[in-house]
Amino acid sequence: MTNHWSRERAEPVAVGPPRRRMTRADRIREARGRRKRRVAGGFAVAMLIVVVVVAVFLGSKLWHSLFGSNDYSGDGVNDVVIQVHDGDSTTAIGKTLQDHKVVATASAFVDAAEGNAAISEIQPGFYKVRTEIPAANAVARLADPQNRVGKLTIPEGRQLDDVRDVKTNAVTDGILSLISKATCVDLDGERNCVSADALKEVASTATPEALKVPQWASQPVLAMGDDHRRLEGLIAAGTWNIDPSAQAQDILSTLISASATQYAQGGLLDTAAAMNMSPYEILTVGSLVQRESTPEDFAKVARVIYNRLAENRTLEFDSTVNYPLDRIEVATTDADRAQNNPWNTYVRPGLPATPICSPSQPALAAAEQPAPGDWLYFVTVDMQGTTLFTRDYEQHLANIEVARRNGVLDSAR
Length: 413
Fold this sequence. Notes:
It catalyses: a peptidoglycan chain = a peptidoglycan chain with N-acetyl-1,6-anhydromuramyl-[peptide] at the reducing end + a peptidoglycan chain with N-acetylglucosamine at the non-reducing end. It is found in: Cell membrane. This protein is mostly helical. Helices cover 46% and strands 10% of the residues. The protein contains 17 helices and twelve strands. The chain has a three-stranded antiparallel beta sheet, with helices on one face. Strands 6-5-10 form a three-stranded mixed beta sheet, with no helix packed on it. It has a two-stranded antiparallel ribbon with strand order 4-9. Helix 4 crosses helix 6, helix 12 (279-292) packs across helix 16 (361-368) and helix 13 crosses helix 16 (361-368).
């Protein structure tokens, strides 16, 4: 039987041009093409990887250059002194630390200081820290009072030079010595100070303008020539912050300028105008009041000064005799009182050439508002500081005798 199915089955029909048989040369060329395409693709991938790596690197560099790394590690590199200004926020302190390369970023310091009451209560001033330390370390250093430097306290009644007590030989630091000690700071194991001699040299030679001497004091300062005592009284009593790394002239000019502001805010200039006196004269009267009496008698002593000046009497204050001799003594000798110098009010009419110390605010207030009275004389008559005032000279002599009997006027020489 004939198989009609096999005879009638359709055969597949070729589509497109007939296929050409590949030669060996064709196969070689095709293989080469495949290899070139693989190499090109691999190269493109490699280039993409390089581009990504470079972009990441450059982005990282840009980020660090703009914002710095988040924090340092280790014990730091060098000691450095930074300043905290009045009113500085924690962020402002952090910025100062970042600028001095103490911390890597201000934000790291802010984060480390969060919740630390000592930082929120930090006082304006200068502090010793180290460069490149962790932010937490910077917080701890600023919170430690031992790291505060440049704090200067000038007690009321101090003069520029050291003074010696005649009876005890005890030496009291003058303002120049106090400034010098306040500048001392140990940096990387080396102690650095601005010496009292360097300060005295600048006080003698720098111009009043360079020292920021207020206009109301410039003429008396110039009149004293190159005597360093020309700056007496122009650095006010009180507590100050001074930069330990500053030069002697900058330190003095900063203190004098700030003191002039303090005096002006206390009303010195306005009161002087009302009293028809110069601010310098009132400052000088205040210094005499400070040295000659105790606070309860300040206003009375101020009145004695004005009464004697009004009657063209010499003041005859032993404090003005002792001042240029750099000593403390209640009694003075005839030879001392005979010395002719710009301060001795036994031989010099009127006020001394300069203040004889830095007076307190109460002493200045007494100079500005003296007590009413007609007294011309006063003397301290006992060791408790009791002072007797009178206008009558004979009564004054009697009061002096009381003081002698009580041992107040005994000389140690």
